[in-house]
Structures are given as C-alpha cells and as structure tokens.
Amino acid sequence: MEELIKRCIEICGGEEFVFSDGDIGSNILLIGEAPGENEIIQKKPFVGKAGKNLDEFIQILGVKRGDVYITNSVKFRPYKISPKTGKRINRSPSILEIRSFRALVQDELALVDPSIIVTLGNTPLKQLLDEKSQIGDIHGKILKVNIGEKEYDLFPLYHPASVIYRRELKQVYIEDLQKLKKYICENGIV
Ligand code: URA
After folding, report:
1. For the CA atoms of the chain, what is the radius of gyration?
2. From its record, what is one biological process in GO terms (predicted)?
3. Average pLDDT for consecutive 10-residue bins of the chain (190 residues)?
4. Distance CA 170, CA 172 (A)
5. Atom of ligand 1 lying closest to residue 121 CA
6. Which pLDDT does position 163 carry in this prediction?
7. Contacts of 65 (CB under 8 A, 6+ apart)
8. Whose CA is nearest to atom 3 of ligand 1?
9. What's the 114 CA to ligand 1 centre distance in angstroms?
C-alpha cells in the first residue's frame, strides 16, 4: 500500500489527495468518482453528504462501513472556479485525469483482490471498463471483466448522489441494491 501511495503522490503533483478507506482485506470493493471538498478536509472518501448517501447504501446491503474497502477512480479533487463566488467547486474528472490514475487503480484492485467490485456512477466504469460506458445501459447486473491481469465480478450501480438529483432513479437504485445483496449473500461474500 505504501508503494501505491507514493505513486499517488507523484501523480497528484502537489495537489492534496484522498487514497481510500476501510478494510484492505475486504471481499467488497466500492469505487466512486473522486474526492470533493469535504473528503479533502477530512482525508477520507465519502464523508459529509456523500457519506450519508453511502451509509444508506451500506445499510441496505446489511454490512458495516468498516467491512468494505472504499476508494475512488481519481484521488485528487477535480474543481473549477465558480464565476459567482470565485471559490472552488467540485466537478467530474476529465478523461485525461481518469487515465492518469488507471494503472494505479488497477494495482490497487490487485492488492485488495476483492470478490466483487461495486462501481458507483459513470466515472469508475470509464476507469475500469470502457471510456464510453454508460451506467444507464449496464446497471444492476454482474459483469465478468478483465482488469489488468485478473478477472473480477463487477456490479455497476448508479451513484448514490445522482439518485438525489433524479428522484425517478430511486426505485431502480433500491432494486439494484437488493439484487446485489442477494448476490453477495448467495455467493458467501458476506
Ligand atoms: N465522495 C467521494 O469520495 N467519491 C465520490 O464519488 C463522491 C463523493
């Protein structure tokens, strides 16, 4: 892990970053987009509002946050300057930013070696699967994917934050989570 963090520092080139949180020996790896302002302050992925959304998710799965390994596709905070306030605001990472972390994220997956990877939203799909992937086309089912030298089970979910902006997704999101719960129970992952 130390070696991965050293490489991360190099890629980030002086930008503050958040690497990951949780149990490195976990069977479940959850991967989101990138840290935002709160994550950089607390040096932990998925805190603040995003953390609350994630807690709901974790509760439905019937596991504890500490039992899951939580990471992001990009480790620094992508931001832009708000023309209104002049302050930094979060934005989605660019494809170049996603690519700059690809080898690192692949090595991170190999180190944790989870039984299942749960991706949240589009960014981790672009990082791990295909840069043209769209969550709306492939959510809610197990995909067998080759990443680096290994084959993994990958379960794409909508990003919990997108469910807040698009209320019509809530029901689909809950159904996907229930499918995921069934899968991890039936396959002895939890
Ligand atoms: N916080 C994170 O760490 N990742 C996300 O994708 C969203 C919020």
Report:
1. 16
2. DNA repair
3. 96 96 95 96 92 86 92 98 95 97 97 97 96 95 93 95 86 93 93
4. 6
5. 6
6. 83
7. 22, 54, 55, 58
8. 45
9. 20
What is the reported pLDDT for 50? 85
How many whole angstroms separate alpha carbon 15 and alpha carbon 10? Answer: 10
- Kindly tell me the sign of the dihedral angle through the C-alpha atoms of 74, 109, 49, 18: negative
Q: For the domain 2-184, what is the CATH code?
A: 3.40.470.10
Is the minimum distance from the CB of 51 to ligand 1 under 6 angstroms? no
Q: Residues 133-140: contacts with CB within 8 Å, 24+ apart?
A: 135/159, 139/172, 139/176, 140/172, 140/175, 140/176, 140/179
* pTM, rounded to two decimals: 0.95
Interaxial angle between packed helices 2-12 and 102-112, expressed in degrees from 0 to 180 and rounded to the nearest 10:
160
Quote the pLDDT of residue 7: 97
Torsion of the alpha carbons at 148, 115, 134 and 19, rounded to the nearest 10:
-70
Q: Measure CA 48 to chain center.
A: 16
| Cα 22–chain centre separation | 13
Closest atom, ligand 1, to C-alpha of 70: 3
The token pair that represents 26 in the structure block: 């976990």
